[in-house]
Specification:
It comes from Actinopolymorpha singaporensis. By secondary structure, the chain is α+β, with helices and mostly antiparallel strands. The protein has 2 domains: 154 residues, Gcn5-related N-acetyltransferase (GNAT) (Aminopeptidase), CATH 3.40.630.30; 90 residues, no CATH class. Helices cover 30% and strands 22% of the residues. A hairpin with a 3-residue loop joins strand 7 and strand 8. Helix 6 packs antiparallel against helix 7.
Length: 263
């Protein structure tokens, strides 16, 4: 059954639940409806290895995709493997996350985790927690699902003892339908696309940080790491640029920021 699109005339009331053995079926159902990796990249630090390295090898093992019916055996197998890997972590109590519900139906997700490995900073500001990922079902986007998930994630971290929480959202999003058309016409690395970005891409000043550029989104997608303004509403403060994700390449000069909150 296809998911129902909420009526724009009626406000949607969202509820949240933490990821656990009790909500595992909802987690699996949610990620069967969205394009995503079930957050394996954050739980394991990498994507799961593919079954085969080339399209020909995949077709030989799994069968060729039926594009007319949008049936892609390798994609379906990877989805099953990803959900199975995370499900195993949940049963062992090693996976944290927030599910957002509308009328009992899971429509959103936020993944958070304890920081492992070398901290970003040393001393009292060393983050103990990191909020990594947001995913919202397409028919519920731009209705506050991610913000609802973020509030519950912060509350869950506080319940676990709190500490410094870190996030690395985009500075701010920007959708420009002209850019994809230029790239389709001239190519992703074309000077025409780079010139258009140089002359038209929005930026703004962040006190103490400097001028930052918007991150590209489409009319159907939003960056999975969230936006700076979303975190600011909950009291997160910008402490610097996220040097790992930010780029000054003229073909994609997108900027991400490093934000922290003590809970």
């Amino acid at each position: 059954m296809a998911p129902k699109t909420p009526s724009p005339s009626k406000p949607v009331g969202f509820t949240t639940r933490e990821l656990s053995v009790r909500t595992l079926a909802d987690f699996e159902r949610f990620f069967s409806q969205v394009h995503g990796c079930a957050c394996v990249v954050y739980y394991f630090g990498r994507h799961l290895p593919p079954v085969a390295n080339t399209a020909g090898e995949r077709a030989e093992i799994l069968g060729a995709p039926d594009r007319a019916r949008r049936h892609f055996p390798h994609r379906e197998l990877m989805r099953t493997r990803e959900q199975s890997a995370v499900s195993d972590l949940v049963r062992r109590g090693r996976a944290d996350g927030i599910l957002v519900y509308a009328a009992g139906d899971p429509v959103g997700w936020c993944q958070f985790a304890r920081v492992e490995g070398p901290p970003t900073n040393t001393g009292d500001l060393a983050p103990l927690w990191r909020i990594n990922c947001f995913t919202t079902r397409m028919d519920y986007r731009r209705q506050g699902v991610a913000t609802t998930a973020l509030k519950s994630a912060v509350a869950a971290i506080r319940k676990r003892g709190g500490g410094w929480v870190e996030a690395r959202p985009m500075a701010f999003p920007h959708y420009d339908p002209t850019l994809p058309k230029l790239r389709r016409t001239y190519g992703w690395r074309s000077p025409e696309a780079a010139d258009y970005i140089r002359d038209n891409w929005p930026s703004k000043e962040i006190p103490g940080i400097g001028r930052v550029n918007a991150c590209q989104v489409t009319n159907k997608t939003m960056g999975h790491m969230g936006t700076m303004s979303m975190f600011e509403k909950l009291g997160f403060a910008v402490v610097g640029l996220d040097e790992e994700r930010s780029s000054n390449d003229p073909r994609y000069p997108w900027h991400f920021v490093l934000m922290r909150l003590k809970v």
